[in-house]
Write a structure and sequence with these properties.
The complex is a heterotrimer of chains A (318), B (253) and C (431). Helix content of chain A is 73%, strand content 3%. Chain A is built from 14 helices and two strands, in the order H-H-H-H-E-E-H-H-H-H-H-H-H-H-H-H. Chain A has helices at residues 2-32, 39-57, 59-85, 90-112, 139-161, 163-173, 175-180, 185-211, 217-232, 237-256, 261-267, 282-286, 289-292, 296-307, and strands spanning 128-132, 135-138. A two-stranded antiparallel sheet of chain A has the order 1-2. In chain A, helix 1 packs parallel to helix 5 and helix 2 (39-57) packs across helix 8 (185-211). Chain B has 253 residues and is α/β, with parallel strands linked by helices. Chain B has a single domain (6-252), classed as Rossmann fold. Chain B has nine helices and ten strands. Chain B has helices at residues 44-51, 74-79, 97-106, 123-135, 151-164, 181-194, 207-213, 231-236, 238-252, and strands at 6-15, 18-28, 33-37, 59-64, 67-68, 82-84, 169-173, 199-203, 216-221, 224-229. In chain B, strands 6-7-8-3-9-10 form a six-stranded mixed beta sheet, sandwiched between helices. The radius of gyration of chain B is 19 Å and the shape is globular. The N and C termini of chain B lie far apart (45 Å). Chain C is built from 19 helices and four strands. In chain C, helix 3 (45-71) runs antiparallel to helix 12 (227-253) and helix 6 packs antiparallel against helix 12. Classes of the chains: A mainly alpha (318), B alpha/beta (253), C mainly alpha (431). Chains in contact: A-C, B-C. Chain B binds chain C through residues 52, 73-75, 78-79, 83-84, 86, 90-95, 99, 102-104, 106-108, 111-120, 126-127, 130-131, 133-134, 139-143, 161, 165, and chain C through 2-3, 5-7, 9-10, 12-13, 17, 20, 200-201, 203-209, 211-212, 215-216, 218-227, 229-230, 233, 237.
């Protein structure tokens, strides 16, 4: 029971972290119709910038400044890159962001090298918040949950309660009308892109010390983020939230309970073959849940796409 | 009377709470040229999209040669001999004019999903496509990319693609929209020529085109057909005068 | 003249048919002769290895372009079809009885069949959509299969992969493919065959409709074709040729690992294809040749070659979405008008300083890299056959100046080039 509680907290942390990325990604998608392949690269940049800043000014300044720099960079990418490629259509746009992801990874290696950076949790938060049956929950995790929830509430408030949010929502569906009403739609697009990437930056700043700050970090998380928004339904913010949490919990639980496939088969009444080591399905029999934890999101995605192509919360488009 | 080419019965369509098409019964005979007119927002294009399975009807049925089209995909309907054009020009702009027409011929000439025939080796395809190009007077533009044609030429190509497959029921959605007078006359003659012996159903705004082309006219107002008949009957129908021509006159002032 | 050609329906068609036969055959004959002669020009074993890799990449890139260029489907996980085909061939190589019953050149067909099998399974649900959704599914499925490679050890061999020995096949006219040169001719045979088949495929009804569906799926549906089935056929055909490329890879390297499946490999093939140009059939061929050369040459010269390749890729997407083939074909009208000569001088005046300027920028990049990452005390570096101390000011000044001046001159002359370009594209000016 206690272990379940610990896992729920761990899964929540992962899920909320995913959500910080998928929220921006899905917002950008519903706005411009393009999936930003380089989204996780901005997350990585957030971590690296924060690390660099934290050396000179400490963690908190990093948390404050790094997302701003990332957001400005993101807005720049939209203004000088995407907007140019936009005229060629969606596929080149997607290819552009893919190339950008490659380039950012190379750039990061160029500047900081291939090794992991010694970017760590600030001293103030380096203590155990509380323990559940001997499992200590570090304060930093609580801090991560706090930050993500605060950002989510802030985002929700801005989108639904403020004038800017109303204009953004209108611009998502009726860009021309909004433009005709005298609003600068390209500027709104650039702004949303900047904010979306800045959110990814925040995620990078707070995840860097726990998940490691290294050149492959964008790639590790990036494809999971795509899977998340496909599962949630492209363009749906609620879908992104639900799918993020779902994936967070599924992977956490799969990792912490060592469930072997043979147990599952035995439980449903299929006997283990006699000479397993020669059996052609031997890998299927010996597989354990921690082994497949990382590919569960992909399996989930394939299943969703087969049975509910529009995703959990996606609108079925004709 | 034999089975009608197209028969709509009790056709309804709602978007949310708004009922756009409110129960349409219409029967169009073989080789008839039928025009559907009506003021803006009457639901003409929706009706078109219902017939060609772009939208699912909320109730009622569409029958082509007595066969219910419910649940069929656009390509299946096309294979049954119904072909349509679009209000917004819908061609393959990157391909040549010739290839546009050739693509439209492939299915009807029985090539299906063949990957063992070479299209440029088939005399039948080349000659068939050239014959269609000749009909729509675009032979001189044969090897240009379709996107480079003038607007009127693109509309003509659209009609060419629509008829190329040899469908016997042709549906044209505002074929003369956005054209000048001379262009309109040109397209009207063209439609006259290429739909010889076929069933034609068209949505049209231009009264000159409608009265010149159609054997019968249906007037669609607020999702209902208020009158169907020969052009002169419809013209004289007081309800039509009131609902449609009156509104049109009002709009002109 | 063009009017004359097109007003008579019967004549031009015939003339085109007669002309197109020799016109379409010529490039193939030239290519075949070139393939046969290459080993006499580049005799070293390493050259043969590079060429083998090139031709395999050509097949793979052409297969990829069947999706991207001709079908409008962007795949981020196409390496798995080549990879699975390759792994299947590896397993066949290791089934000694079966493998000894047929000659080696037949093996890639099995790779192709496995490619088809996988493509049929994935295509069944992924070809419902083109565009973004298709791209996402391809990425997810690609990741899934790549991740499986460490779990399903029986098929993928885990971390160390699967290796085999190609010489156990039935001798092919007495040849056991012991030498690199034998493998070269095997690969060359397949590259011609596969390229020709793919070219012919693009000329069949389903190939033409793939273009139609790419441009306008809705219109294609109202012409009697199901967009989904057309995509499915393209996808499966592409899987077949990708599998062939995988089989050839297995023959060449006699080992396959997780690297053959992962997203990085899928990314490389996208890069190669796009660089070459997706709009023309021969684009991916150029892309594969240029990319393999650049990779081989640059990776020997600099650690940063991936960085340069990435920059080149992003620049291509932003400024030349037609790729190299697009750039080449842009010049066809100029040649037809006979104005090509007018362009030579402006080209030299712009491109030469631009190239020098870019080399200057590269020098700065290399020096920065050396400055940051070389071990402490190691201040000397060698660049463009010059050895200097990267911690002194002078080399920085020189490189900076070269970069600035080169790009400056190129920028100034660019307007001249543009004028010359416009003039060369206007008929009548020349005569």
């Amino acid at each position: 029971m206690e272990l379940i509680l610990v896992n729920i907290i761990d899964g929540l942390v992962t899920g909320l972290l995913l959500f910080m990325l998928s929220a921006g990604l899905t917002l950008i998608f519903s706005m411009m119709g393009v999936l930003n392949f380089a989204h996780a690269s901005f997350y990585m940049l957030g971590a690296y910038f924060a690390y660099q800043i934290s050396i000179a000014l400490g963690f908190w300044m990093g948390l404050l400044i790094a997302p701003l720099i990332v957001g400005v960079l993101g807005a720049g990418v939209e203004r000088y890159g995407l907007r140019r490629v936009h005229q060629y259509g969606h596929v080149p746009e997607l290819i552009f962001t893919f190339g950008l992801a490659l380039l950012i990874e190379e750039l990061v290696q160029f500047i900081w090298g291939k090794n992991q950076m010694p970017y760590s949790i600030p001293e103030v938060l380096n203590f155990t918040a509380f323990s559940i049956a001997g499992n200590s929950i570090p304060a930093y995790k609580i801090f991560m949950i706090f930050i993500s929830v605060a950002i989510f509430i802030g985002l929700l408030y801005i989108l639904t309660r403020t004038r800017v949010g109303m204009i953004i929502q209108a611009a998502l569906s009726y860009p021309r009308t909004v433009e005709a009403l005298g609003h600068n739609v390209p500027l709104i697009f650039m702004g949303v892109f900047g904010v979306g990437t800045a959110l990814a930056g925040v995620a990078g700043v707070i995840a860097g010390p726990v998940l490691g700050t290294f050149p492959g970090m964008a790639f590790v998380l990036g494809s999971i983020v795509f899977v998340t928004i496909v599962i949630g339904g492209l363009g749906s913010l609620w879908g992104a939230l639900v799918a993020s949490l779902l994936i967070g919990w599924i992977t956490t639980f799969a990792k912490s309970y060592n469930l072997a496939m043979s147990d599952v088969f035995n439980a449903v009444g299929i006997a283990t073959p006699e000479n397993l080591s020669d059996h052609w399905l031997r890998d299927l029999w010996t597989v354990t849940s921690p082994q497949i934890a990382d590919i569960l999101p992909y399996i989930l995605m394939v299943l969703i796409l087969i049975f509910r192509p529009a995703g959990l919360f996606g609108k079925r488009h004709s | 009377m034999s089975t009608p080419a197209l028969e709509l019965s009790g056709l309804k369509k709602s978007f949310g709470k708004a009922e756009i098409i409110r129960g349409i019964n219409l029967s169009i005979g073989k080789s008839e040229r039928h025009a559907i007119i009506g003021p803006n927002g009457a639901g003409k294009s929706t009706l078109f999209n219902l017939i060609t399975a772009r939208f699912m009807p909320t109730a009622g049925s569409v029958k082509l040669h007595g066969e219910d089209l419910r649940g069929l995909q656009p390509y299946q309907i096309n294979r049954k001999g119904l072909s349509r054009s679009f209000q917004i020009t819908n061609i393959f702009p990157a391909m040549t004019v010739f290839e546009n027409v050739r693509c439209a011929l492939l299915w009807s000439q029985g090539y299906k999903y063949s990957f063992w025939n070479l299209v440029n080796r088939s005399r039948q395809l080349t000659e068939g496509a050239d014959a269609i190009l000749d009909q729509i007077n675009l032979l001189g533009r044969r090897d240009l990319p379709a996107g480079a044609l003038s607007y009127a030429e693109q509309r003509a190509l659209e009609i060419g693609i629509t008829i190329a497959g040899g469908a016997d029921v042709i549906m044209l959605d505002e074929p003369t929209a956005g054209m000048s007078h001379s262009e309109t006359d040109y397209i009207t003659d063209l439609i006259m020529k290429v739909t010889e012996g076929k069933t034609l159903i068209m949505v049209e705004h231009d009264m000159g085109v409608v009265f010149g082309l159609a054997d019968r006219i249906s007037v669609l107002v607020y999702g209902e057909i208020i009158a169907t008949g020969k052009p002169e009957d419809v013209r004289g129908d007081p309800r039509v005068q009131e609902a449609y021509l009156g509104a049109a006159l009002e709009a002109e002032h | 003249m063009s009017d004359q050609l097109t007003t008579d329906p019967s004549k031009p068609a015939q003339r085109m048919r007669a002309g197109s036969m020799s016109l379409t055959l010529m490039p193939w004959i030239i290519a075949a002769i070139a393939l046969i002669l290459m080993p006499y020009i580049f005799t070293s074993n390493s050259a043969l290895t590079i060429m083998n890799q090139m031709w395999i990449t050509v097949i793979f890139a052409l297969a990829y372009n069947m999706l991207l260029g001709q079908g409008g489907m962007l795949s981020f996980g196409h390496a798995v079809y080549a990879g699975v085909g390759g792994f299947a061939c590896m397993h066949i190589m290791n089934m000694s009885d079966l493998f000894a019953s047929f000659p080696l050149p037949v093996l890639p067909i099995f790779g192709g069949l496995f490619g088809i099998g996988l493509a049929m399974i994935v295509g069944a649900f992924s070809t419902r959509n083109a565009g973004t959704v298709f791209a996402m599914i391809s990425l997810g499925v690609g990741e899934l299969i790549a991740a499986c490679s460490v779990i399903i050890v029986a098929f993928f061999g885990g971390e160390e992969g699967i290796s085999g020995d190609r010489t156990y096949a039935m001798p092919f006219f007495g040849n056991e493919f012991l030498q690199q040169i034998d493998v070269y001719y095997l690969t060359s045979f397949w590259v011609i065959l596969a390229a020709a088949l793919m070219y012919l495929l693009s000329r069949t009804p389903v190939g033409r409709m793939a273009n139609a569906v790419r441009d306008n799926p809705e219109r294609a549906e109202f012409l009697g074709y199901s967009a989904r089935w057309v995509r499915f056929y393209s996808f499966v055909a592409s899987g077949f040729f990708a599998g062939i490329a995988g089989g050839l890879f297995a023959i060449n390297y006699e080992i396959l690992t997780e690297e053959n499946l992962n997203t990085a490999s899928s990314g490389v093939i996208l890069l190669v294809t796009f660089l070459g140009g997706v709009g023309f059939f021969f684009g991916p061929i150029i892309g594969a040749i240029v990319f393999t050369l650049v990779q081989t040459v640059l990776s020997l010269q600099t650690e940063l070659w991936a960085f340069y390749a990435g920059s080149l890729f992003v620049a291509t997407v932003m400024f030349f979405p037609g790729g190299l083939a697009g750039l080449l074909m842009m010049h066809v009208p100029v040649f037809k008008l006979g104005n090509a000569k007018q362009l030579i001088q402006p080209y030299i005046k712009t491109l030469l300083p631009a190239a020098i300027g870019i080399l200057g920028v590269c020098a700065l990049v290399e020096m920065t890299f050396h400055f940051r990452h070389a071990s402490i005390g190691d201040d000397e570096m060698t660049l463009f056959w010059t050895t200097f101390d990267s911690h002194t000011l002078l080399p920085w000044l020189i490189a900076g100046a070269v970069a600035l001046i080169g790009i400056g001159i190129a920028k100034r002359n660019a307007s001249e080039l543009k004028e010359a370009w416009d003039a060369a594209n206007t008929a009548g000016d020349a005569s």
